[in-house]
Amino acid sequence: MNCAERLVEIFGSQAEAARALSLDRALISHWVKSGYVPARWAMEVERLTDGRILAVEVLDEAGTKKPVRVKSRPDDFVSAVPGSEALNKFAPSKRIQSFHPPQRTLMGPGPTEIHPRVLTTMSQPAIGYLDPVFVEMMEELKSLLRYAYQTRNALTFPISGPGSVGMEFCFVNMVAPGDKVVVCQNGVFGGRMLENVIRTGGVPVLVEDTWGEPVDPQKLEDALKKNPDAKIVAFVHAETSTGAQSDAKTLVEIAHRHDALTIVDAVTSLAGTPVLVDEWGIDAIYSGSQKCLSCTPGLSPVSFSERVVDHVKARKDKIRSWFMDMNLLLGYWGATTRTYHHTAPTNSLFALHEALLLIREEGLENAWARAHRHHVALKAGLEAMGMKMLVAEKYQLPQMNAVLCAEGVNEAEVRKRLLSEFGIEIGAGLGPLAGKIWRFGLMGYSCRPDNVMLCLSALGSVLSDMGLPVHVGDAESAAHGAYAQMHVKDAQRKKKAA
Ligand SMILES: Cc1ncc(COP(=O)(O)O)c(C=O)c1O
């Protein structure tokens, strides 16, 4: 018997031997097949078998099976290969090493920090996108997404691409050239919806609201009365550029009263604040993996009602994108027998599965409550430093807090110092709000008390250092006070319920 076979006999099976050596079973099987244990395992094998297999036996056997080769070529052999000089012409001028990102506290508008469980899952070995094990995982992923969206919609799945691809997917499938679409804009992302309508050949009707305010339902009602032929209403539920939340339920009701379908942007709202697709009757919705889902960027979960599927199937013209044609993608995500559509980003999908599982374990209501709790504490701290929220309290998104920058301060310098001195990222204002607001995200795994306290402490330190009348410690104390009050209320509520 060779050393590999003896090792298996001592441990009882290949699996047990693999476990003892902390190796993959396939490797032990490979040793048995090749008839020897590689020399570098000699000492470990002697130790684990209590000397029943000696290191010297392993070394002797490995030496005869796989003799050590003496180098026969110089180390600079590669450059001697004819033609390699020509390849080196394109080599980068600077010596490039492996990339290791620094540890950051991400408290901006996204992406968020990623839960360690999600990162571990993402680094598992690759498998094929039609592997039966993967297909099984896809089904679980769809059902976890239905939970996150609170829907029974069969067509609920993640699109390969960021939130912008989810947005475009909705417009390209649902808007035929000449279709009238009402777009409600109260920030940057409503503007992107408008751009999508124009590019798909639709006829846009714009309903505008001031940035920092929610979409006004009355304005939508008026626009639909004036445009009874409008087929679709599109709006952003949680406007990331301002931190304002619109009343999705009411806006969908109005659209349906006027016989229009709805497209809802839930990129920042999903899992941070209630999104009840079935209860509110939303027709088409998209989100992003990198916000309150705390996953790696690059996936866009979408959900479509039967009405939308019928609407798209009834189109007489060809969808103007091959990649995004819903009818074609259904062959991969919708059907029971799956066929190749595109190479799905398998490891990112493992990660999304784990991120959604974490939400399922926590419970959606608890995730919403967590965002609210830390929002109240963060706000108390910011206000203690004299800052004011951009959005009126009733419409504030807990997961996206926009505050007016302290007066007389170089806002970009503050963000720069937060990043360089404390490793904290916060967001700047966009469009008309550039230079006027800071945006503090409390999304997904970033939404934690340690992040709130670190952020307040760092901001207080930077502002006071820059000469602002901020008393270091006031913000932390206000946040602690807010947490304490919430704990008392929670305890009272629990006592009453018992
Ligand atoms: C409300 C909203 N919609 C759409 C997008 C676009 O998503 P992505 O950047 O993933 O393409 C974002 C991104 O921040 C967003 O906040």
In short:
With 498 residues, the protein is α/β, with parallel strands linked by helices.
Polypeptide structure, described:
This protein is α/β, with parallel strands linked by helices. The chain has 3 domains: 3-65, Orthogonal Bundle (434 Repressor (Amino-terminal Domain)), CATH 1.10.260.40; 116-361, Type I PLP-dependent aspartate aminotransferase-like (Major domain) (Aspartate Aminotransferase, domain 2), CATH 3.40.640.10; 364-497, Aspartate Aminotransferase, domain 1, CATH 3.90.1150. Helices cover 47% and strands 11% of the residues. It has helices spanning 3-11, 14-21, 25-34, 42-48, 55-65, 77-80, 84-88, 116-122, 132-149, 163-174, 188-199, 217-226, 248-257, 277-280, 306-313, 326-333, 346-362, 364-384, 411-422, 449-465, 474-497; strands spanning 105-106, 155-160, 180-185, 203-208, 232-236, 238-239, 244-245, 261-265, 284-286, 299-304, 400-404, 424-425, 427-428, 437-441. It has a 7-stranded mixed beta sheet with strand order 2-10-9-8-5-3-4, with helices on both faces. Helix 4 runs antiparallel to helix 5 and helix 12 packs parallel to helix 13. It is globular, with a radius of gyration of 29 Å. Bound molecules: pyridoxal-5'-phosphate (PLP). Pyridoxal-5'-phosphate (PLP) binds next to helix 10.
The first-level CATH class name of the largest domain? Alpha Beta
Record the strand order, biggest sheet. Answer: 2-10-9-8-5-3-4
Quote the average pLDDT: 94
Count of separate DSSP helical elements: 21
- Looking at the overall shape, the CATH architecture of the largest domain is 3-Layer(aba) Sandwich
Weakly predicted, low-confidence segments = none
Looking at the structure, the CATH topology of the largest domain is Aspartate Aminotransferase, domain 2
The strand count comes to 14
**Cα-atom Rg, whole angstroms?**
29 Å
